[in-house]
Amino acid sequence: MTDGWDWRRPGDAPTPAAPPRAADPSAAAPGTAGGRAASPWWSDALADPWRDPAAPAAVVVPAPASGGTAPEPVSDPDAPGRPGLRQVLLISLVSALLAGALGGALGYALAVRGGVAAGTVLGADPAQAPALAQRKPESLAGVAERVLPSVVTVRVSSVGGTSEGSGFVVSADGHVITNDHVVAGGTGKASVVFNDGTSAPAKVVGQDPESDIAVIKVERTGLRPVEFGDSDALAVGDPVLAIGSPLSLANTVTAGIVSALDRTMQAGEPGGPVRYYAAIQTDAAVNHGNSGGPLVDAAGRVVGVNSTIKSLVSDGQEAGNIGLAFAIPINQAKRVTQDIIGTGKARRTVIGAQVGGPGAAVAGGGVRLASVEPSGPAAGAGLQAGDVILRLNGRPMAEPSDLIALVRKFAPGSVVTVEYRRGSSRQNASVTLAADAK
């Protein structure tokens, strides 16, 4: 009598009392004990007389012998498998569609709630943007910034209306240079407007119609006068700025170069005085209203007073800039200004000879002297009536106005070299110019 537990060790022969069992479907393999694979555990569960036929049997698969065939791998159908490529692509596509839909919905909600432009920032953050480079003092912008506080708009009332031009401060006590034709015909009273928009009354100190220079005085303190340059040191091609109020557009700056020097100008209104000067020609844009404003070199120094423009329009029509403008040399304008401030009038430089009339302009170049004052500078240098002036300080003479304008460019007492022809001979003479006795 037993409790049904078979205490046999694996490999032992069955006891005689055990009933015969059906043949083991698995054939005994060579090298096994008792016709079955050696196992550390007993696996003869099918021969157990007490086994429930309905209970599943646990089968222990023996390990293959060395060099034998490996068993076929067994996979659990219930275990989670690795996703396929189609599944990955499908999941990514669905995720992208969901994210786009969500982003669009949020963007629409924000736009409707706060306005489309409310959340939009254009441009860089000023706090993070690099600071703008400061303009160098020698740059055109630096020069303009330095000179503009000294430039003013000049307004003069007259019977015919209001004349407007430009001017610039030349002394700390309020003296301003402008053109004579800006203040001509006025009542002697004027007003100036500074570049900051403030204005102040002014009065005319004096004027010289023949040089087209006038001086007015502003009753205001804290003014900044301009720095003067040397107009005799200019060369063709030097850069210049014209500053003023062309066409009533205050604080206008235009740039150009010196395109010619000692360009003879003979100007004046019908019935008025004739103005002569050897001008600085520039291609800086100059229009009506620039008159009296400064012509400035690249160092910010005033080298001329803008005065005249050339135009292709007929007489009586409004002239406009065509790339040619003319300025009075500052050396001449400064000298005239000092005379006006000191004495109320300007001295006129003369050579002591008369030109003009028939035969004044000689074929082949030169200007013939119609007469010579007995005690004048020309007579003192040995010049005579009938002599033909060919050059003055190397500048060729072609018209009578050339000699007049160039002589007035120099200050009284200046010594100039005159090349002339008498008959068929050429000669040179040094002439000391003088001031007119008027």
From TrEMBL:
Q: Which GO terms describe its biological process?
A: proteolysis
Q: Which CDD domains does its entry note?
A: cpPDZ_Deg_HtrA-like (cd06779)
Q: Which Gene3D superfamilies match?
A: 2.30.42.10, 2.40.10.120
In the UniProt record, does the keyword Transmembrane occur? yes
Keyword set, alphabetical order: Hydrolase, Membrane, Protease, Transmembrane, Transmembrane helix
Database matches in PROSITE patterns = PDZ
Q: Where is the composition biased (Basic and acidic residues)?
A: 1-11
- Region of interest: Disordered: 1-49, 61-81
- PDZ domain: from which residue to which, for each copy? 359-422
- Supply the Pfam families for this chain: PDZ_2, Trypsin_2
GO terms, molecular function = serine-type endopeptidase activity
Q: Which domain of life is it from?
A: Bacteria
Q: Which residues cross the membrane?
A: 88-111
Skewed-composition ranges (Low complexity): 12-49
Q: What name is this protein filed under?
A: PDZ domain-containing protein
The record lists the organism as Micromonospora costi
Q: Source taxonomy lineage?
A: Bacteria, Bacillati, Actinomycetota, Actinomycetes, Micromonosporales
